[in-house]
Write a structure and sequence with these properties.
The structure holds 2 protein chains of 2 kinds. By secondary structure, chain A is of the alpha+beta class. Chain A has helices at residues 7-20, 63-66, 97-110, 119-125, 144-147, 207-215, 220-225, 231-235, 283-302, 313-317, 324-346, and strands at residues 2-6, 22-29, 40-45, 70-77, 80-83, 91-95, 111-113, 116-117, 128-133, 157-162, 165-170, 242-248, 255-262. Chain B has helices at residues 7-12, 40-49, 73-91, 136-147, 193-201, 227-231, 270-277, 280-287, 297-304, 306-313, and strands at 15-17, 23-28, 55-57, 63-69, 98-99, 102-103, 121-122, 156-159, 173-178, 181-183, 206-209, 214-217, 237-239, 244-249, 262-268, 324-325. Classes of the chains: A alpha+beta, B alpha+beta. At the A-B interface, strand 12 and strand 13 of A face helix 6 of B.
Chain lengths: 347, 359
């Protein structure tokens, strides 16, 4: 079932959806960007149709709705504790295909990983239904096609936005009632079939190649360039790392709450262990860890696919202008060099 | 060379006397130091047609063209008409038929009518710079019609951020773009990047409270640079939408009493800045008993005294609630000569309306 709506009709449909759902999507926060007079686009509750930013990609990912940067998980008083309340209302999450794929990746980590479902993840995730935002093409940091995340059929609604309204496909019949009486017109979402940016994934199947890559001087470049701020992982659609922090309410350390707060493998101290030992003490080490996790390790552990969806947000947010696609190209060069060296040695 | 030239009159026309009698240097105003690059062809034309072929970057961001013959000044002035009309009259909305706000017809082929109000300088500001907190040249373009044309001197420098690359601290009325920050604790990951940025590049006003995992701020000592916003990976620090400005007053160089300016206003909005500056002509007129003479703005403040300056400059201005005003200012001058200010009473300067007998 498809509909074509003008702005007023789209807003009317949104308002009836909002009676039953909390609708989240990318919204503009004017002048809240890193630099003066720049905006940020991040996920927040959508109140009006005009709030939805669809022409450009959000700076921060959709994961903030499901796994917020910070959430209270339980409150404690001496030896008693009470879990925080989860969402009381179902969530309709407006997301592009790459964002929806990213959630499938996050699910691998939070749900069933090690035979365990994360309670705090599950209680939100079970409430979430996707409304697909047809991607108008992304930007020059996008490489979803290379990562195979350009298409999806995991949505209850699909929307193609235009300045004066939108086309809607109702894929899940339960949503038909929100569009009752609105002008019908067939609509099937189209998907990005080609990005200007194409990323060739490195072949890291050989253990010796991987070991040599780990020691390759290419990572040293990042010691001088990367400032280990973690902007890339916070902007990442799939990064899941968090830490727990106890917040003590006052002078009595027996009363407070435990929070889950995003963490970043790029920030110094992330891997610090007892005795202050760190496994990755340089920016280059940390960059190598992230890149290999996204483009090798995750897939080895969870199968199917790599952890990167090619949304390009890490590149987009990096204050030092480090590009993930350029970095992968450097990995490819290093791998070719290593393989050539090994072939020479073998001969 | 034997020419009878009224060099003071030529100076008012923005042509500066040179070592060589009869040769002058033109200073073209560039409000905020930024104009369309097409005007570079004007400079080239003037320099190659009437000048010695060279171009100099004026220290106050004017386009300076050296080696112009006195007899060519009328031709240069006539050529300047379109530049003055486009840059001052159109871009900055300057009413060229006024001087110090009073009606006075401008002859379009006569070049610049006054030199008193100096070119407003600016760094590139947030138009380009990752540190800038405001659009400096747009502000300069708004100030230009308030101070120009006028025979009253004022040097205004605009810096986009407290790094003050444009030296707001070394002019009469230095304006620094500052930001008031908003902290979004729900986005803070307690990484401490802002704390380190503030410690390394600003005033050390942030600290991480380990008990709460949140940042605490000594707001009183914040300079408003926005380094915390730049450093934050999660947008937990953002700038308020409203632009704020700091005014550094009375800085100067010079042969007598050079000094660094001191803070006059903090966290003033653009409206406040513009309204304060609207009192500049009145203040200057009052100090000099309504007779403009070639005297730099900082000296007018000295003659009137800061408290009188404050009274006249804030007259009728409604301050925004955040705005702070210096109750008093104690400048520290470089003492080229000790007890410089101790001299016979009859050598003291006067300020304000004078009795006829005293003149």
């Amino acid at each position: 079932m498809g509909y074509t709506l003008n702005t007023a009709q789209a807003d009317q449909a949104l308002q009836s959806l909002r009676r039953d759902y909390r609708v989240y999507g990318p919204r503009r926060f004017p002048k809240q960007g890193r630099y003066s007079d720049t905006d940020i686009i991040r996920y927040a509750e959508i109140e009006h149709f005009g709030d939805i930013v669809w022409e450009e990609k959000s700076d921060y990912p959709a994961k903030e709705v499901i796994t917020p940067i910070q959430q209270s998980i339980f409150y404690f008083t001496e030896d008693e504790y009470r879990a925080s309340k989860g969402p009381q209302k179902p969530i309709l999450l407006l997301a592009r295909p790459c964002d929806i794929h990213a959630q499938h990746i996050q699910a691998k980590i939070y749900a069933g990983n090690g035979g365990y479902d994360d309670f705090y993840y599950m209680r939100i995730r079970e409430q979430v239904t996707f409304a697909l935002m047809e991607c108008p093409g992304g930007d020059d940091t996008c490489f979803c096609v290379s990562m195979g995340t350009n298409r999806t059929d995991d949505y209850a609604l699909a929307m193609r936005f235009r300045p004066d309204g939108m086309e809607v496909k109702v894929a899940d019949g339960r949503f038909a009632r929100y569009f009752d009486g609105m002008p019908q017109q067939d609509y099937t979402p189209s998907f990005v079939e080609e990005n200007a940016l194409k990323v060739t994934l490195p072949d890291l199947s050989d253990r010796d190649v991987r070991l040599a890559l780990k020691k390759h001087p290419m990572w040293k470049e990042f010691d001088a360039r990367c400032i280990s701020c973690g902007s890339c992982t916070l902007a990442c659609s799939t990064c899941t790392c968090f830490t727990t922090r106890d917040l003590i309410y006052g002078d009595n350390p027996e009363v407070g709450e435990r929070r889950r707060v995003s963490a970043s493998c790029q920030i110094e101290g992330f891997d610090q262990m007892a005795g202050q030992r760190e496994l990755r003490s340089t920016a280059g080490d940390r960059m190598r860890y992230k890149v290999l996790h996204k483009f090798h390790d995750y897939k080895v552990r969870f199968g199917e696919r790599h952890m990167c969806v090619g949304c390009g947000r890490c590149t987009h947010r990096c204050p030092e202008l480090i590009s993930i696609s350029a970095t992968i190209a450097k990995v490819n060069d290093a791998v070719a060099e290593i393989k050539a060296g090994m072939a020479t040695k073998g001969a | 060379m034997n020419q009878d030239i009224n060099i003071k009159k030529v100076r008012l026309n923005c042509f500066r006397q040179s070592k060589v009698p009869g040769l002058f240097m033109l200073q073209m105003r560039v409000p905020g130091g930024t104009v369309d690059a097409k005007y570079l062809s004007y400079i080239q034309h003037i320099a190659k047609t009437w000048g010695d072929g060279n171009f100099h970057f004026g220290t106050r961001q004017t386009f300076d063209i050296t080696g112009i013959k006195y007899e060519d000044i009328p031709a240069v002035d006539a050529y300047l008409e379109s530049y003055i009309r486009e840059v001052d009259a159109s871009l900055c909305n300057v009413d060229m038929d006024t001087v110090a706000g009073q009606p006075q017809d401008w002859d379009p082929v006569s070049g610049y009518p006054t030199i008193g109000a100096r070119n407003i300088t600016a760094c590139i500001g947030n138009y380009h710079c990752i540190c800038g907190n405001c659009n400096t040249f747009e502000l300069a373009q708004k100030i230009e019609p308030i101070i120009f044309p006028s025979h009253y001197h004022i040097k205004i420098n605009i810096a986009g951020c407290p790094n003050d690359c444009n030296k707001a601290h070394l002019c009469d009325f230095g304006i620094i773009g500052v930001a008031r920050m908003v902290y979004h604790p729900e986005r803070c990951i307690a990484c401490g990047a802002c704390v380190r940025a503030c410690e390394k590049g600003a005033t050390r006003v942030l600290k991480l409270n380990e008990d709460t995992g949140k940042i605490e701020k000594d707001a009183c000592c914040c300079v408003g640079c926005g380094e915390c916003v730049r450093a934050c990976p999660a947008s937990a620090w953002t700038r308020q939408e409203t632009k704020f400005y700091r005014v550094i007053l009375g800085g100067r160089t010079g042969r007598q009493t050079p000094r660094t300016g001191k803070m006059f206003l903090n966290w003033a909005t653009e409206d406040v800045i513009l309204n304060v500056l609207r009192n500049w002509q009145k203040f200057s007129a009052w100090v000099m008993d309504y007779k403009p003479e070639y005297l730099h703005g900082g000296h007018l403040i000295d003659r009137a005294g800061y408290k009188k300056f404050k009274e006249l400059m804030l007259d009728g201005v409604t301050l925004n609630p955040e705005c702070l005003v210096a109750e008093d200012i104690f400048w520290q001058e470089t003492e080229y000569r000790s007890n410089f200010n101790v001299k016979p009473l009859e050598k003291h300067h006067s300020a304000g309306p004078q009795e006829k007998a005293a003149r």
